Amino acid sequence: MKLEDPDLATPYARPIWTPALDPRVLRSTAADDQSASSANLLDIRNFAEFVSVAVDETNAEHWLLSDGHWVIRLDLHDGTLLGGPLFLDYQIGGLGLKPNQPLEIACMY
């Protein structure tokens, strides 16, 4: 978890919560095959003004991308975005959808 200066305006504060507090974290790893076209590589430098990162004791990177309104939380458990562009594999789970429940409703909790 990484806290921010309480004097920062909301659009500029980018606290990073643990997955236990924010279960909608996109879990990722470096893809085994890094030969993807450059269009498929994530270069975090392209989002420098919107990004905050915390690196934990296992060297996992915990990223928060936010424009002050929209938020994407990404945990990278293998590899690093700090060294340049990377092709990532994503693991999506825990959506908690009930049968016939639209995704938009599940995300409104």
Poorly predicted segments: 104-109
Task: Report the average pLDDT across residues.
Answer: 77
Helix content: under 10%
Total number of β-strand segments? Answer: 5
The strand order across the widest sheet is 2-3-4-1-5
Cα(first) to Cα(last) distance is 22 Å
Assembly type of the shown chains?
Answer: single chain
Shape: globular
Beta-strand residue percentage: 15-25%
Q: How does the helix and strand content classify structurally?
A: mainly beta
Largest sheet: 5 strands, mixed
Secondary-structure element order, N to C: EEEEEH
Number of helical elements: 1
Radius of gyration: 15 Å
Question: What keywords describe this structure?
Answer:
109 residues; mainly beta; 5-stranded mixed beta sheet; globular
Structure description:
It is a single chain. The chain is mainly beta. It is 4% helix and 24% strand. The chain has one helix and five strands. It has a five-stranded mixed β-sheet, with no helix packed on it. It is globular, with a radius of gyration of 15 Å. It starts with 25 loop residues before the first strand and ends with a helix. Residues 104-109 have low confidence and may be disordered.
